[in-house]
Amino acid sequence: MPSARLDRSAFTLIELLVVIAIIAILIGLLLPAVQKVREAAARSQCQNNLKQLAVALHTYESDHGKLPPAGKGYGWCASPHTTLGVVGDANIQNMSGWVLVLPYIEQLAIYQQLNLDGPFSNLSVGCCCGYTGNTTGTLNGSAQTNGNAALMGVEIKTFQCPSDLRRLRLEPASSCYGASPTHPGAKTNYDFVTDRNLNGISSASGCNGYKRQPNTLRYMFGENSATKLTEVTDGTSNTFMIGETVHEVRNGRAPAWGYRGWVMTGVDPQSPGINFWGTGANFKQWRLDSWGYAGSLHPGGCHFAMGDASVRFVRETNSTTALLLTARMADGGNPPNLD
């Protein structure tokens, strides 16, 4: 018996085009939702990183009776300052305070390999602006020969915001920004909240500017700072402790986690506000306009860990006045309402 013949019609070109168009529309509708989910996950991980670092600072303070400094022994300080007469440290270390926190964030293995008495980068002169050398301090050895420089290139996940991993995560090996001229340094997206004009950079401040500030004007951190949480009289929940920044800046370099190269002083929330990307030819929305600025690749603002170890997302629309009041730890003003 002859088998029945089935007529099979193929898709017409118009039908194929309609299907492709529908798929394209669906992808267009789904892509923003996928991106939102991805950013929400990245923001959550970023908050967790800051929370872990903030709790580590509290534990360190409990063990040592004070918080770690933002850094020790900055070699590029102009010293002695001709007007103020202030001097830098006798021992140049260029150490970031995060080095002292490593045992509290499960990085004891790296910490035990570091030479805590020697330098963490070999920077001993300024790189511009009349800072030709430090007339007081001495670079005690070499970060390259003592082994610290090589360890400065280790990338630590806790210091990395997932939203910023598309950028270069190593500073170049150079005399100004690297751990040594042959060793790059791993960057951090999180740094201590400091006054960027009081860290041996500003000609009006000289070295150890933090120590010469009255408590009413101090942030929680600075070069050679030794803050106790009891000194944060504005309330730890009302005071910035750690701020977020990005890997790329136009003027200078982003901070490394382990050392203080040129202009790696910390994060200043109020100068000139959050997420200042520059203007005109300088504008790139993944690159902050200068060193020490606060910002992130999260839309609309960036994260801060407060003095009580809580983490807040602070919007870029907040005024510099409100940000300054929140950065100062004992100015006696009423806590501003941050968005």
Written description of the protein model:
By secondary structure, the chain is of the alpha+beta class. It has one domain. 23% of the residues lie in helices and 9% in strands. It is built from 6 helices and 10 strands. It has helices at 13-64, 98-101, 108-113, 148-151, 209-212, 320-327; strands at 71-72, 91-92, 95-96, 138-139, 170-171, 185-186, 190-192, 240-244, 301-306, 311-315. The strands form 4 sheets. The chain has a 4-stranded antiparallel β-sheet, with helices on one face. β9 and β10 (311-315) form a beta hairpin. The chain is globular. The mean pLDDT is 87.
Short description:
With 339 residues, the chain is α+β, with helices and mostly antiparallel strands. It is built from six helices and ten strands. A hairpin with a 4-residue loop joins strand 9 (301-306) and strand 10.
